[in-house]
Amino acid sequence: MPAAPPDNIYTPRQQYVLLIVCLVALATLILLGLGSYTTAFLGAGILFVVFRPWFNALVHRRRWNRQVVSIGLLVFAFVVIILPFSALSLMLVDRIRHYGQDTSQIMAVLHTIEQKTGYRFSTEPNVRSLLQQSVSWISQRLPSLASGLLHFTVVIGLMLFTLYFMFTQEAGFLRGLRRYLPFRTNTLHELGESLRNTVNANVLGQALISLVQATLTGLALWFFQVPDALFWGVVAFFMAFIPVLGTPLVWGPAAIIKLTQGHTGQGVGILIVGLVVIMNIDNLLRIVLARRIGNIHPLITLAGVVLGVEIFGILGLVLGPLLLSYFIVLMQVFERENRLHPKLKAKRTHTLPHTDPAADENTAAPAAT
Length: 369
Description:
AI-2E family transporter, transmembrane, 369 residues, mainly alpha, AI-2E-like
């Protein structure tokens, strides 16, 4: 009687390899399908880190209802963070497009500078082309009406929906991270601390610094009669995320324009306020917030902002420094594991059973005879 055919034509090893291939293929399809909504999930993760201390204080300590607290935090995040930030972004893009389409004001300023310096460094077609390229680059990286109101609404809704379940199912979410991420417990702890430090420094700390600097910049420009002071204050808010070079790129050109127009007092006043007040308030707030909230190296922030904005758009202000921080943490973990591996190997070698040579000779003697 012939043997019955096997239930499966694959060996256990082939089944294991095919399972991995299927997982990778499905994960690739999912990532490709959700690629345009990546910012929603990343934004939900950032808001989860920001609001988790509040959630723990209300739910775990005061025993408030988990669903009620989650909904309250979602409403607060939408009204206080998402809505104002989106409105500022839309306002910024709209005004940049206005200046890109109408170059007369910019050309008038450039002609004045050329008359004062006696050096002709631009022509109108070149300026218009440069402005249009700048508008195109910025519009791709800031949320705008051109990207579609429906898409923007879906991203915000998906972000809040994800954040709600991250809060209501917090234990399962964190347990899943610990179970499926390929890191040791102490490495996960380091990554969590790096995430908390980077998010606190770049979301809470840097947002507060940017708000203060933008307010001071807008008030200074308004006091010294610079046109569109509110708009330039909004520009200063976003530029302040760039260490050292941020707000000087706003009030510096304004001071130069005032000086070239013959308004020496206003130009000098803007320079004094910028150098003495705005720049120093930045340094002072960074020192204070570094002790209370979190601190990362300015070089990591600068390189991370350049990297993050190019990849993630406006969320790159936070995600870029986070990527660099994670890279540094993983390099430190890799170095520590490499140092630890020889020690563990040596320890295992020393703990192997040790045989006595004399005993070996005694046991081997009868065999020789």
